[in-house]
Design brief:
3 domains; five-stranded parallel beta sheet; globular; Fumarate Reductase Iron-sulfur Protein, Chain B, domain 2; 34% helix; 485 residues; alpha/beta; FAD/NAD(P)-binding domain; 15 strands
Length: 485
Amino acid sequence: MNELTLKERMQMSRVAMPEQYPDSRRRNFTEVNLGLTPELAIEEARRCLMCRRAVCIEGCPVGVRITDFIDLVAEGEFDQAAKVIKQDNSLPAICGRVCPQEHQCEGACVLARKGKPIAIGALERFVADYELENDLMQTYSPPHRTGKRVAVVGSGPAGLACATDLARLGHEVTVFEALHELGGVLVYGIPEFRLPKEIVQKEIAQLEEMGVAFVTNAVIGMMDSIDDLLGEEGFEAVFLGVGAGLPRFPQVPGENLIGVYSANEFLTRVNLMKAYRADSDTPLLDLRGRAVSVFGGGNTAMDAVRTAVRLGAAPASIIYRRSEEEMPARREEVHHARQEGVRFSMLATPLEFFGNSAGFLEAVHLQRMELGDPDEGGRRRPVPVPGSEWIEEVGVAVIAIGNSPNPLLPRATPDLDQTRWGTLVTDETTGRTTKRGVFAGGDIVTGGATVILAMGAGRVAAASIDEYLRSGIWTPPKDPAEVTG
């Protein structure tokens, strides 16, 4: 137990995460954050107030028993702490690195009101890394096998979380992935310097040891339909966790010029196809010495611009139509980007991209914005400032203003109802769609969100799938017309 008094704990400073120096890391793809040492982890864990009502747990989308695992860390019982986390979060090494804790568990921490919250994400990462590095992973074997078969479409965070819970419940699970590598957005969207791919591979390997089967290069909707899975393939339920991979563009002239990329394409080429290597089959334009502008203010925009820095962009800029206060990106990512030399141009939006006679991007026509009345989401709407236009030279533009669900699956499955935004209609408490036996969760339901929210949706769906397989009772969403109308 923590022998420090409440006053002593509240006077302790939050431990700083060791990290690479900016001048070094901007030239490599090695992970920026180096992780806590055991000594630092224990010191940070001892700051925890062990609140009777642990509001940090309420802020966690998957309900990790945060105070329990932190108490074990404070006692140096790292292997036991890992077991506590794994009861609710099957991907802690990933979540500890990429989840927006400042808006979730750490944002709810009572210490955040008068100082800095407990570094819950850093502690979760430490515990998960300790387990991996010391080969302490334990394969979970269900007490019995049900004989029920479930297909999970998509190997991103929603699919992996759903597959984990279903396997623990004794069901036979097969995960279908459209790409040639497993992990979904974890491998194609998040750069190596934020999430090493080796970590993703190790987490997935634990699922394989649990008996989960994986099939790559399997585009459901083209290779097999959902009806095929539920019919001749013999699956009794299907979970759709295919994310939101259809990029949005600003719909301005010139966005089809060579050198204008969606963030999805840009990051996929670099992360999955290794486009930074000379022998890559899917190259990028040479960014060395080129001006690169990334349009957007979320984590994907930060990933893209910091990747451009490492590929030699000069300068590398973020252009965002709202102010920095409205940027949805994690504060840590914005801080790291500034340290690495990224320029920020707030309250600006593109009107047109200009190219040369060969079709290559050369400049962008921009306009200054100001914040007006709040929009339907509560954020102040950006409004054009008359007479504030200007032109900037740019060699590469990356559009990171959001994504929509890929329409392939709904088109191939007309009895899956969609909302007016192209997402799937589901019951948010069960993940059930309008098609019997089909469940969905993650970005295909919510639009682009976070890894941990997708995992939470996958876990909700897994519990509902288990109930359906055991009872045979199907209750679709109450009134899809209200959502789609």
